[in-house]
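REVIEWER CHECKLIST
Item 1: Sequence provided? yes
Item 2: Single chain? yes
Item 3: Sequence as submitted:
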Amino acid sequence: MIYSMNTLRIKKQDLKIVAIVSVMAIMAIMLATSSAYASSADLNVTAKRSEIVKSLDVLETKIVSINNSSITIVGEDGGEVSLSAIGKWIIISKEIIPATNWTDAMNYVSEGEATVVMGMMTGGNETHYICLGLKQGDVMMFKPILLKIYAAHYKHTKTYMGPRGELVDKGKNYMILERDGRKVIASTRGKWIKAGGGEVTWSDVADEFHVGDTVRLFCHNILVMRKEFSDIFGIDAFIWGYSGAIIDLTSGVALSRA
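Item 4: Structure as written out by the authors:
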């Protein structure tokens, strides 16, 4: 069945865009702006200044074909719609893959059922459609601009914040924690010092962090997402940037940034 999960219509009033710094530890790509405001009527997601996003639609649909510049899906009316997919993508699967081109990202997508975030764009007298996000099975992928659109607020501190939660999943360079029904994905890439064990990487110690353990993170950055993003991708926030530690409060394993 094809239906729209939620629709964001771009109105004329200003839409506040949260200013965000570079996310080197989590996705090495950025969606930020130093000026915290952008006119939603001119929310540009391409290099062409004459083209603007007029609406976003989230569809539970079917991908019928994929090529090196676009995907074709079944639209709400049952007809086929071609969505441009060129540009950079962030992929979260078994690992976080930042800033990858569509020609590589397309290998993570297959024909069949998927959740697709579709943007309608206008330029001059022309209207066309782009793919801004996609979830299929265990793979989620989105363009950096989608994080900007769906950002609720950004928290940063020069000292650290100490959120904690239950470990519910982990990948090659991340972990997912849950607390009060909200899920946070935290980057674990880079080198660490394990208490009593010397320098390690996440892959060296991931097996010592068990699903169900309570983990506390001492971090500098948290990007909190709007509910619309969580409804699509199942992620409520992103965490990155450590000068403190990652501590498994259940097992006692502790990592500090090398």
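Item 5: Key structural point noted by reviewer: The chain has two domains: 3-151, 152-257.
Item 6: Recommendation: ____
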